[in-house]
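GlxA family transcriptional regulator
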Amino acid sequence: MVDSHYVRGGGLGKSEAGSDLRFTLPSPITFLLLPEFTSIAFFSVIEALRVANRYAPKKYAWNLTSLEGGSAKDSNGIEICVSNSIFDLTEPPGTVMVVGGTAPDRFAMPTLFSKLRWFSSQGCLLGAVDTAQQLLAMGGFLDGYRVTVHWENASAFRERFPMCRLTVNLFEFDRNRVTCAGGTAGIDMVLHAVEAEHGRDVAIRASEHFMHERIRSGSEAQRLKATDRWDIHHIKLVKSIELMEAEIEEPLTTAELAAAVSLSSRQLSRLFKEHLNVSPGQFYLELRLDRAHQMILHSELSVNAIAFACGFQSQSHFSRVYREKFDVSPRQTRRREVERQFPVMQAPN
């Protein structure tokens, strides 16, 4: 399938000023702040828009909405005033950007999906930031589109929404959809859109305001390189770790890893012991358990499904090694996370 890109009004092309409209954020932008949204993801986007307005000849406009109007509370309990409820809007904006946070599944309501479907039918660009991709995917809005999510959520998202063309890029513009992984990637997404519409000089001036040393492209990695995360610089060791991270569901044997980097099993084991003080098998197991831990925290997949997605053929074996690492069972981990997100209110004495 050949990808096309979204241009408000239809068709591919450039503006009269020569700007590339395939990657823009049409104004006005309506933000839908879901309950317990992630502040850094939201403010990275909106602050970048505010600063861009200092230099862009055509200003961005936006308004804030929530599900019920009044205010929206972020994941830290800080309330943000909004102008109205998303359901009160009767005129389509240029862009509708949904900002997620804790447990976005809770808001998968037919009424919301109907409203978003109406926005899309009116030519709006639909966007999702942080965890809101999960909500849009539940409504079928991202089927067949390139979609990025935060790396912590990627494995669970891939298992749950196979119709989406998942990447782990910083952001993705694909036709009438835009998705952003969250964190500070929103700054780069906006600066990319500013450059596309207003030129590189304007984007650079906005970037320098943030002391942002460069504008990252959407295809850049979300995570630090293996060399930085583990402070290792041996090329073959780094390559073997990258292979492990890419093959979580069907783990490679030490012999297969060694062959892939042109070493013997003994040589690879010696490298791991020398630089990381563990065997390749132990290191691989830690990676798989960490991935499983993130999936338990950030998805609703069953423990059995998570075990298989992380290369464990037996749930009992998975539960045993998980408990050895985290001192609790997978189910206890999930229960504690639910209790943390939805604490039971205690009546005063």
